[in-house]
Amino acid sequence: MRPSPPQPAGARHPNARLPRIVPVNRPAITQEGIARMLETGKLSADVDLEKLLINDKSFTTRKMKVHPYDARLVPAVMTNLSPYNKMNGFVLDVADIKKVPGKLNLKDLKEWESAERDHSDVPYTPDFSLRSRSSQTQLASPKREDTRTYAELLDVYSMHEFIIRKGATLRSTPEFASFKRRYAASWGNVELVIRRLEEFLKSYGIELAYVDGRKVVALATFQIDDLLSREEMLQCFANREELEPLTSSVTQQFASGVDGRQLAARKIQATWRMYSQRIAYRHLLVGTQAAIAIQRRWALYRSHSLTRKTIKTQKEARLLSWKRTMEEFTKSWPKIKEGRRTIVHLPSLSYPRFHAKHVPFYFALQMGQLTRVADLRDPLVDVIMIAPFRPEPEVLEYYFTLLEDSGVVNPRGRLTLLVPEDAKRLPSALSLTRLLLLSSRLMKCLSSLCKNRPAYVVPGVIGAEELSLAIELNIPMLSADPTIAQAISSKTGTQRLLELAELPKPVGIYGLRDRRELLSALASLMTEHKEVNRWLVKLETESCSRGHAYFDVNRIRVLKSSDESSKTYDGVLAELMEYAGKRARLVHPNSYPDWEAYAAMFDVVGGCVEAVPNRIRTSLTANLFIEPTGVVSLHSVVEPMLAPAFTVMGCRFPFQNFVPYAAVRDAALCVGKAAFRRRVMGYISVDFVLQEAGDGVAAELYVVDVDLCLTNNAAAHLFACLVTGSVYDVETGSCANSNKNESLAYAYSGIIHSPFLSAVRHRTFFSLCRSRGLSFDRYRRIGLVFHMVDVLLCGCLGVLSVGTTRSHVTRAMKEFQNLLNLELPKQSEHSAESNFVYFSSAIHQLIRSVSISKEM
């Protein structure tokens, strides 16, 4: 027969029988219990106990009782309700358990139990299960009748002290044998402790030690062998007093211990390795920290360089865009000046920070050109005025009333006053332009107001901030490029401009860099031009005579001596080098208290020295306007009111006829054309000095200074023409009212500032002025117009006396001075922050000039 092919795994043969279900015979569980049946052999070792336990419900499931968390913190108390209370009557005799031999199989154990039952009167119950004894009383423990052996007594009452000799435990002694029998249950941990003790004694070379076994057991119960300290191991010795001195020193291990020399060598090697690794780690740490510092610095430098490069690129792009805007503004100027336009007035005093901190009332003085609202005279002009603070409503109402009475159409709707939002939080020495740049909200507002309409900025004193503002807003400026303006507005730049105009100027030397060059130039000029009595020194970047000092020739002893041989350059220079501080006179001691401070600033910014004319007949100022197309127009020629210390307080109009008006006009226009060739446009002011010559010689007109901004005197002239309805005649140099055909005369005080002005009551003072007739007559267009910076609390005030004759305006100014003298205390005249003395001196000069004019 052929064998059948093999079937695949798991396939069923077709003739195979189905498996039968064989019932499993479970043995009956007796009262002995499963554990007893397994011990006696009634149940085989491989029997399946799961079904027995489940079917007989030996193990049941029920819902676990969840105790609250607070119950865990309450200590358990044994009460009658506790199930463990049933065990209260049982006594466990350890001695009976120890009688059971250690190594017996199941058969021998049964025989031993039978023998024990035969010798015992108490019946033996093999059931170890706990039965309910609720109805039984507590059973008494059975009494022992046999005597205990010596070994048992030794195990119980022995001290269990054993000996460790030469690092080895004497294990053959009865004490150690009893100790081992007594603590056989935990002998593993005890043995580890004993070994640690042996190693400890061997390491110190101790030959003999007595060990307290009970302390060893206590230590083995609660401690791990690897964490044993020296103190814990010493507590295990009965002769601790002898061992403690031997183990107190570490050198004992190396001197007496086993392999002490090797231990010492390893210790030295380990210490050296530790030391060398620490040194290496310190070097590595220093190198790592240095590398980290270098990397951080390099990353910071790269980021800084990249940021600067990005800013420079963006600034160059914006500068290029602004220059294109300026070119378009220049081309479109004829159309712009005839159409609707917006003028942004920014009367900022952008002095350098080291100069601005010496200017008294610097923050309030930047509000001193509210007279620029005269541009509203043109109905096609909207004015946006940037101010460092918002004036009181009554001050604005005063200006609006003057504008409305002057015929200005809708001045309240065409004038917008903007104030930097963070002006009070920023330092007071910041310029108005810098405050504007630091006010993001105002920048956005200004940008939106000037968007999609012809607009341009008319700045004040031009500094570096004006260029940043123009680039940021991309608005054209009606002035020179700020870089060019800063170069020309310096004293040396002004002289170069006058050289380009080919006009006469005082003798001097310009472009001096330090005090040594200054003294050398003074010595040279004094010896070459002995006819000059006074030499004026000017700081390069100062303004308003704050950087002026002068040397009188009659104070130089070398030049006063009769010895002509000593009147040389070297002699004058030696005296100036030694006594310059005593020979110099400072114009503003509050800015520079002594010569050393002045000379230190001269070393920083430089300056010039020029001659002061011996006999000054008069001073004049021509106010020009240079259009972007190059057309130069003369707006006014006024006579400044000078204080004794070369300080300009205000001005008066018309000027005295000591010089022909045509000569002044032609010289001013010549300076304006030269300025336009230097790409200067906007408002400029040219200062002239008329020097009186000898008999039969005509007076000489010198140009002494140029201001590239709209000055207070120029703005006051425009405001005076506005409130009186007058028009300036360029041909004759006079102003006349077209309706009344009356000539205009006025005197402007400039801004008077004093800390004592804030103590004057605002309403009371102006009520007193009205009672004395010191007010403006809106119908006759004459009287006193107040140049309000804010209420008198700010400490600044100005007046504009308007009339038809010089005597009338001079009388009004004198009455105002007398009233102000009554209101201000006497000590205000000598305050370092007050210019009231200069104002009084200017009024005195004004009265004197009027008297001289009447005599002429």
Automatic annotation (TrEMBL):
What Pfam families has UniProt attached to this entry? ATP-grasp_IQCH (PF24923)
Task: Using the UniProt annotation, give all residue ranges assigned to the region (Disordered).
Answer: 117-145
Enumerate the transmembrane spans.
Answer: 782-803
Tell me where on the tree of life, at the top rank, the source sits.
Eukaryota
Q: Keywords of this protein's UniProt record, alphabetized?
A: Membrane, Transmembrane, Transmembrane helix
Task: Answer yes or no on keyword DNA damage.
Answer: no
What residue stretches are annotated with the IQCH-like ATP-grasp domain?
Answer: 482-730
Descriptive protein name: IQCH-like ATP-grasp domain-containing protein
